[in-house]
Amino acid sequence: MIRPALIVWNELAETLLKLTQQTDDATRDETIVNIEKCLDARDKLHSQITAPFTLEEEVLGKELIKLEDIIQKSLFLFTKGIKKNIYDAKSKKSNMKNYVNPYSNVTKDGTFYDTKN
Hints:
Layout (H helix, E strand, L loop, with lengths): L3 H17 L7 H19 L8 H46 L17
Helix pairs in contact: 1-2, 1-3
């Protein structure tokens, strides 16, 4: 018999995997909120999953460990995509400033001033 906490953990893991594979920019904020909810729910379940385990639970646990590795990689790629979008937005903002005022970043070191008139 498998404990209800492990069954819920498995369901949350599958939900997390599905959420991290959503790449739609329009629903990204909602996806992030749902990911945080799943992670919080898993944190609460963590204390309920303790040894001793039955044979069924050990088999499920081995599957969950493999699934957790996939989830970790997927979460990494998801956050990497967010970081790239933030970097691109900052870069676009900087490029727009340089386009509007191209001489704003010109340094004055080494400028020659003729003192003779």
